[in-house]
């Protein structure tokens, strides 16, 4: 899945239940799963029931670009309903060729994947018609009892592409069954989730030169969810939910004279049908968002350039009050030899978002999940100071940031109400530092990262003995990804993470963890189309709970082969 590549990304914290492909919450800069957004081309992907399903993107990674993590001013302008950050993908250019992969491992794990792309000769206007298809399948009994997962995904895409632009028409269908102890609650029962996700996207992007571009798209998404709280008991009964989303978006950058105009616009209409989320004030909602931010630059002495960007974002729904959020960025580029960095910048960005239906429409006075139909718009203010640089084989970024959030919707646990999770608004301030260094060489690649976070939270009158999400964060997190090309067809990948987590009353294991994954691959020198792999996840068999009270997946191994043509 696309989320697979994020597991050890230094800018992203993937909080997995079982494997990340089974269920994963994605957090950015100490945010929570519902303050992280996803984009594919010009459209913002969204699940209105719960942010737990936002990462359910039924698209083969081979069809998507490597993700870009948008934060600060970039997120305010290019994100949607995501106060912490956005994972942004573009549609990859189709090439003639394909691959097939298969593997097997312990816990009766098997997996398979296939991809094929075709590109026609150059046609009228220098454009090519292309198409690709993909399928993926996996089954596992899981590393814990009642921890099985079943996965199927099918994709098809048509593409018209040339030197200046690309149009993609994509359809994806995905089914997933997951089961795990304490999947979403801390009550020591076996829970399961059965999902069916469909996505239809039309996207066009036109490059205009000099960094200017325009992009527009539209999509339709349906997610069907069958959740069972206790697979081995009779009550409470299963919950059934279906959500629909229709959306359209456009973004671009156009230069006129000395000004460049950055703009975006989105419209999203959602709908929920549910047999349990029926206690709110509405089950349909229309969202409108527009942003405009002109920027201009001045050349300075010493090969330096100053760029100023300033603008605003307008957010509105037909159910909530609207909001206008200012955005500003000041950047100093320095091309002089020996400069400390290629760019120094400071930014300020306000943003806002609204809660999902699980928080709004769960019954307020009874049940496992307690909602609040009066939860209002969540607002954030982001301030950031950072630098970027590259020298030789090295590239690095550093940032110090502060995010002040008001009315963030968190799920809390209270000893006075031990049999429920309660959606509660919290005012929370997050201060952090983020350092990333990347080295690319002939034999060795390195990606090193460090994130340090501190939070101050005020839940008002709510009784919060523990937080499932807002206060589940690493105070210190180190990542190290190492790729060694040892020669004669051998390659070794080591992904490592060390973290010191904020203490949490719901976590029954330690707050410190070292997590590693290793993959060894071999490509026969005389048959470069074949790649043999052996991999181990959770190498040290750590019991660290990514999400408090949710048992960790145990050590797992898999071996397989990939044939490309």
Mean pLDDT: 95
- CATH architecture field: Beta Barrel
Count of alpha and pi helical runs: 2
Number of strands: 30
Q: CATH first level: which class?
A: Mainly Beta
Estimated structural class: mainly beta
Helix content: under 10%
Largest sheet: 22 strands, antiparallel, barrel
Distance between the termini: 22 Å
- Radius of gyration, in Å, reads 23 Å
| Binned strand content | over 45%
Question: What best-fitting shape do the alpha-carbon axes yield?
Answer: globular
Q: In total, how many domains does the architecture comprise?
A: 1
Low-confidence stretches: none
The CATH topology turns out to be: Maltoporin, Chain A
CATH superfamily: TonB-dependent receptor, beta-barrel domain
Brief synopsis:
The chain has 565 residues and is mostly beta strands. It has helices at 72-78, 357-361; strands at 13-17, 23-27, 36-40, 43-45, 68-70, 85-89, 97-105, 109-119, 128-140, 149-161, 165-181, 190-209, 212-228, 239-256, 259-274, 284-300, 304-317, 323-334, 343-353, 369-370, 378-391, 394-414, 417-440, 444-458, 466-467, 474-487, 490-501, 512-522, 530-537, 556-564.
């Amino acid at each position: 899945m696309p989320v697979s590549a994020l597991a050890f990304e230094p800018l992203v914290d993937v909080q997995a239940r079982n494997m990340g492909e089974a269920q994963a919450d994605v957090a950015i800069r100490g945010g929570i799963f519902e303050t992280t957004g996803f984009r594919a081309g010009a459209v913002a992907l969204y699940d209105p029931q719960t942010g737990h399903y936002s990462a359910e993107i039924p698209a083969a990674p081979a069809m998507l670009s490597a993700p870009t993590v948008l934060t600060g001013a970039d997120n305010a302008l290019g994100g949607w309903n995501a106060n912490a950050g956005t994972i942004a993908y573009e549609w990859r250019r189709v090439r003639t060729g394909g691959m097939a992969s298969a593997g097997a491992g312990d816990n009766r794990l098997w997996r398979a994947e296939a991809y094929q792309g075709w590109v026609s000769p150059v046609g009228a206007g220098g454009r090519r018609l292309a198409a690709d298809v993909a399928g993926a399948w996996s089954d596992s009994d899981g590393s814990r009892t009642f921890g099985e997962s079943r996965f199927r995904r099918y994709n098809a895409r048509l593409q018209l592409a040339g030197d200046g632009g690309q149009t993609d028409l994509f359809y994806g269908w995905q089914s997933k069954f997951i089961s795990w102890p304490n999947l979403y609650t801390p009550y020591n029962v076996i829970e399961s989730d059965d999902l069916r996700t469909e996505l239809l996207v039309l996207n066009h992007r036109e490059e205009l030169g000099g960094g200017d571009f325009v992009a527009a798209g539209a999509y339709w998404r349906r997610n069907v969810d069958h959740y069972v709280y206790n697979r081995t008991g009779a009550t409470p009964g299963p919950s059934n939910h279906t959500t629909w989303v229709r959306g359209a978006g456009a973004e671009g950058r156009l230069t006129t004279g000395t000004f460049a105009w950055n703009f975006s616009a989105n419209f999203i209409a959602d709908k929920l049908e549910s047999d349990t989320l029926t206690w709110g004030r509405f089950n349909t909602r229309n969202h409108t968002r527009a942003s405009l931010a002109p920027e201009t630059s001045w050349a300075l002495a010493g090969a330096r350039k100053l760029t100023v960007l300033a603008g605003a974002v307008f957010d509105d729904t037909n159910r909530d009050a609207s909001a206008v959020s200012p955005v500003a960025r000041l950047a100093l580029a320095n091309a002089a030899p020996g400069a400390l960095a290629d760019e120094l910048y400071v930014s300020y960005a306000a943003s806002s978002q609204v809660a999902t239906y699980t928080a709004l429409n769960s019954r307020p006075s009874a049940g496992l999940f307690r909602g609040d139909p009066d939860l209002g718009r969540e607002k954030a203010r982001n301030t950031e100071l950072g630098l970027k640089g590259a020298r030789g084989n090295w590239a690095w970024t550093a940032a110090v940031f502060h995010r002040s959030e008001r009315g963030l919707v968190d799920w809390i646990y209270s000893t006075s109400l031990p049999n429920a999770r309660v959606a509660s608004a919290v005012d929370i301030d997050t201060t952090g530092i983020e350092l990333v260094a990347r080295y690319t060489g002939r034999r060795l690649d390195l990606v090193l990262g460090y994130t340090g976070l501190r939070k101050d939270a005020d839940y008002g009158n709510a009784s919060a003995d523990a937080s499932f999400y807002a206060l589940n964060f690493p105070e210190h997190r180190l990542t190290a990804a190492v790729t060694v090309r040892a020669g004669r067809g051998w390659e070794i990948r080591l992904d490592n993470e060390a973290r010191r987590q904020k203490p949490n009353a719901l976590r029954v294991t330690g707050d410190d963890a070292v997590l590693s994954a290793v993959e060894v691959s071999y490509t026969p020198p005389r048959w470069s189309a074949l790649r043999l792999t052996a991999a181990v996840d959770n190498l040290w068999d750590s019991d660290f709970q990514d999400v408090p009270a949710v048992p960790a997946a145990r050590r797992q191994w898999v071996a397989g082969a990939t044939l490309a043509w």
